[in-house]
Amino acid sequence: MTSTIAITGLGAVSAVGGDVPALSDALREGRCGIAPLTLFRYRGRSSVAAEVRATIAVPDALPVATLRRLSRPDRFAFAAASEACRDAGLDPALRRAAALTLGATTGGMFESEEVYRRRQAGEAQRFRLSRLLGTSLTTAASVVAQTLGIHGPQATVSTACSSSALAIALAADAIHRGRARVALAVGTDSLCRLTYAGFDALQALDPEPCRPFDAGRKGLSLGEGAGALVLEDAAHAHARGAKPRALLVGHAGGTDAHHVTAPHPDGAGAHAALRGALAAACLPADAIDYVNAHGSGTRQNDAVEVAVLRAVLGSRLARVPISSTKSQIGHTLGAAGALEAVVTVLALEGGVLPPTLGLREADPGFGQLDLVPTPGRRSPIGVAASSSYGFGGHNVTLILARGDGR
Q1: Which domain CATH number covers 106?
Q2: Residue 230, SS3?
Q3: Which of 59, 143, 266, 276 has minimal Cβ neighbours within 10 Å of its Cβ?
């Protein structure tokens, strides 16, 4: 018999604010964090992004030399992880034994680009090699572990845009297998020129804030930030008096094995992930009350996702609310799965469904859908699905339920 997984703490850094209350307020009010890009200059098809503009506190438990070389995703991860641990009430002893899983894609690439830019512009004839140490994907997990005193099993994974959804699944598996009673799952990523130029080269960026599922959608809007969730054995949470904010009742992955960037035309991997997550949760498809969609805003991805949902939910799909919060906080790549899991927990907990911003006219090829237009909707839900699809065909679906089990 496997453990029931309780989610007892949440943390978030996004373009709409530096913590979970700011994110919750923006979701409820239908505010958009996508605006002109200011982090670096870029001339191309698009110049908008969901950039983090909030001041992010730095950890005071690190040596000064280490603090100097922290990358943006390192700082985002620390802030979100710290908030999640505070929210869950994890004391030093609980943190020490906890597992840590983290998903990311580009690490401190922005800082490496800045070193190169300054040298090319003649702004810096000399630089410390230590400034490049934050480039590695593993530094964010190291910062979180060092500052919060986490000594349990640790893993950093990178499966493109499903990285932190996979990190959540791995954290749950660590609890199921008895490797830890408590686990911290984090996703973090920052904007950088490499990512921006890459998506622009694929003609995947919308010149304006993205409009997922809209008939006139032209692509995605890149974003940055971090999400963090504390997971623990539900019996362990109950014993220490921690109230579950939600339950992770099932998860699964599925790989397309089709193309480096394009999804399988039939959504084979995404379909396997959704079916597998429902099977792991021992729930029928009819149990799903809400879908927090991958909803990137590209023509191909949105079409495949709707086809997968229709294949699994059938005619009931027309009555199941679907929304894409990438329309508010952008596509945060490695952080997307964790941030969208946080959003889904908030929807389950508060009974308020976030909107799909910018939706003017749903793509008529999708048939009848409930895409939750602005400003969102108050609607109590019991079970929700959150899916993340990544380049290379890496797909993960999480099934979450209300913390009170109703």
Answers
A1: 3.40.47.10
A2: strand
A3: 266
Q: How far is CA 166 from CA 8, 73, 172, 291, in A?
A: 19, 18, 10, 18
* One domain for residues 265 and 165: no
User: How many helices (H) and strands (E) in the chain?
Assistant: 13, 14
Rounded distance between C-alpha atoms, residue 22 and residue 24, angstroms:
5
- pLDDT of 1: 39
* Same domain (yes/no): 199, 317: no
Q: Would you say residue 244 lies in a domain?
A: no
Q: What share of the chain is helix, strand, coil (3-state, %, to 5)?
A: 40, 20, 40
Handedness of CA 272, 277, 282, 285 (dihedral sign): negative
Residue 294 falls in the annotated catalytic set: yes
Is 210 in the active site? no
Q: Is residue 331 annotated as part of the catalytic site, yes or no?
A: yes
Q: Of 398, 393, 178, nearest to 281 (Cα)?
A: 398
Same domain, 344 and 209: no
Q: Are residues 87 and 188 in the same domain?
A: yes
Q: Which of 85, 161, 192, 210 is catalytic?
A: 161
CA pair distance 146, 169, nearest whole angstrom: 23
The one catalytic residue among 251, 264, 271, 331: 331
375, exposed or middle or buried, with CB in 10 Å at 0-12, 13-18, 19+? Answer: middle
Q: Is 167 exposed, middle or buried (0-12, 13-18, 19+ CB in 10 A)?
A: buried
Query: Residues in the chain with pLDDT < 70?
Result: 1-2, 124-131, 134, 405-406
